[in-house]
Amino acid sequence: MPLELIKEVNGVLEVNPLNKLQKVHFTSLHAGCDYSQKYIQGILANISSLTYDGNRTASLEVGLQEQENSDSESNTINISIFGKLAKDCAKVFYKGVPKSRYAYTPLNELKAGMVVNVYGVVKFFKPPYLSKGTDYCSVVTIVDPTNAQLTCLLFSGNYDAHPMIYKNGDIVRFHRLKIQIYKNETQGINSSGFACLTFEGTVRTPVTPRTSSRCFNLTAEDCRTVERLRVWASTNIEPSATAVKLCDVQPVQYFDLTCQLLGKAEVDGASFLLKVWDGTRTRFPSWRVLIQNLVFHGELSEIERLQNLTVDILVYDNHVQLAKSLKVGSFLRIYSLHCKFQPVENQVTSLVLEFHLHGGTSYGRGIRVLPEDNSDVDQLKKNLESASLPAIHCSDTTYVSDYEDSFPPSPESVSLYEVERCQQLSATILTDHQYLENSQIGTILKQKAPQQYRIRAKLRSYEPRRLFQSVKLHCPKCHSLQEVPHEGDLEIILQKGEAKTPDTKLQNTLLYDSKLWTTKYQGGRKVAIHFVKNDGVLPPSNDCLILIEGGTLSEIQKLANNFHSVIPVKSGHEDLEVLDLSAPFLIQGKTHHYGCKQCSSLKPIQNLNSVVDKTSWIPSSVAEALGIVLLRHVFLMTFTFDDGTGVMEAYLMDSGKFFHIPASEILTSDDLQQSLDTIMDMFCPQGVKIDAYPWLECFIKSYNVTNGTEQQICYQIFDTTVADDLN
Fold this sequence. Notes:
Blueprint: E1 4-9, E2 12-17, E3 22-23, E4 38-39, E5 43-47, E6 51-52, E7 58-65, E8 76-82, H1 83-96, E9 115-130, E10 136-143, E11 149-156, E12 171-182, E13 185-199, H2 220-236, E14 253-268, E15 271-277, E16 296-298, H3 300-306, E17 310-316, H4 320-325, E18 331-344, E19 347-357, E20 366-370, H5 375-386, E21 394-395, E22 398-399, H6 416-420, E23 428-430, H7 441-444, E24 451-463, E25 471-474, E26 481-483, H8 487-498, E27 512-518, E28 526-532, E29 545-549, H9 553-562, E30 565-571, E31 576-578, E32 586-588, E33 591-593, H10 619-625, E34 632-642, E35 647-654, H11 663-666, H12 670-683, E36 696-707, E37 710-718, E38 720-722
Parallel strand pairs: 3-4, 11-13, 17-19, 29-30
Antiparallel strand pairs: 1-2, 5-7, 6-7, 7-8, 9-10, 9-12, 10-11, 12-13, 14-15, 14-16, 14-18, 15-17, 18-19, 18-20, 21-22, 23-38, 24-34, 24-36, 25-26, 25-34, 27-28, 28-29, 30-31, 32-33, 34-35, 36-37
């Protein structure tokens, strides 16, 4: 078959033989060279749909695969065709493209420079978000049976052109993905003609592709590939532990919520309200946004009918624009939603749940609209249809909590006979209020609040089950609670300090001596260490406080193991300053001390001169000198008590008195974690009936929480500790 050169000249096609032109291989192509007297040859591997720009100029993207160098990393190129030639080529190419021409590369065979087609199982993803430019960006990490993984960074001006991923475990197919090396890691980016399909990862669900494109190939072999990946993922990829129903939400938790949107309103320029439900009810009362003065979209009568089955979510910053576009009634998945306790104004012990979708994209934070045919939406619809609407018991216009109805009688309840003879020793002891007599839970649940009680009951269950997740940071001033930052978060915060060069004018003062280092790699990063003196003399390392600028987390941790204390700092205008209260302001060995960003008023590092004892470096003294309100580590847990007359949920917030274990040390001590596991296994043993559980004596206080016109009663453990012989 003779080869011909087709040209478009003034809108007219010219066809000439190629016998006078020289053939070149794909590997010989270089930008900026003249190829007017040369040609390339290959197999048509893929083709895009015909598109038009604002001037109605047609364009077509095709992929050409070279047969001679099939093992080369550059055996495929993408070609853009425009104008009438694009239209004519489309007519011919659409007829001639083989249906099963695509070859897929395993993830462990990827090399820089390749443009490949791949299949993979989603291990992590960030929903599309607006980048600093005009495009949307999404991030997805995929794995395959070779146990290799690939992180892909995808850009497109069209939000719907991004992979329609709804959860980890989904299957993706990427065509024309370009492979590059970034920071010594293999990375995928979209190249010209990039196309994607997404499939649900659940075994035995229909193999239905998600895509905004109307032109794509899906063969029987593609379906078999998806099914094989589903089966492999079901035993090799852990299901997401972050998907949680509202009834299972714990205070100070980040989770993914599948829900239906009932209403929305703009609160202010930086925040937006979403009213949602999932057919279940939170265990604690939740905060309500006052909507009287807001332009509200949604059926208020329906929301009023559902009452406390709905929750209010405040959406911030980069998520607001998407939230505004959501349609009332749509089904949503909200990723990395933050649930936290918030004290009720003028009531220190009264707490309600708040739900926030913070700005940024960390941990995949974002919102996705789920399609009607999604299997999770099918399950959600069933939950909504079977939801039991809360009953309102009115007496003097007060809402009476119906939490006692949440636990129907079961054969596993504590027997009343056991209650009558409960002379066994308690696994807990009371530290005060010995005058209080025991009260039955069934009676307590019918009483008004606030009151104090003494109970004798068994621990039916507790949350969180993964006990290390119970450790939070609590501010004694504003009573806020927050998560203990993960190492990955600390790395990011400290990187900001690395980027700033230490100011030599702030080195070697009366307070400290300074040393400056330049790292051999990492672009010659500058690191300054300031050794704080005691009465003008440098103390030995085990008594010495050091200040570090530009250090990484691993460097700071090594220094903390060799010096008494470490404070990460940065150069200010006139003095060194604490780096960032999102990170620990003081590190002593493995213990990290944090400050409240809201309540602290930072002072310059020179204020450390006011610390009297410059050898012990007591955290509270250092915090006071630097204007920091010290956060304390606390255990935050929910206990479900059963005494045979009723079931009650009470929360425990304790820094170490209850368990005799310091909350500030447990995250870095395997022995302390083992001790806590042992205590909870003794309280709530597995594999035995509840009659065999030990008795616990506890002081409980009740308090009211008001949401609009509704009032609910909550319970908290106080002045109780684990018996000494259990530690």
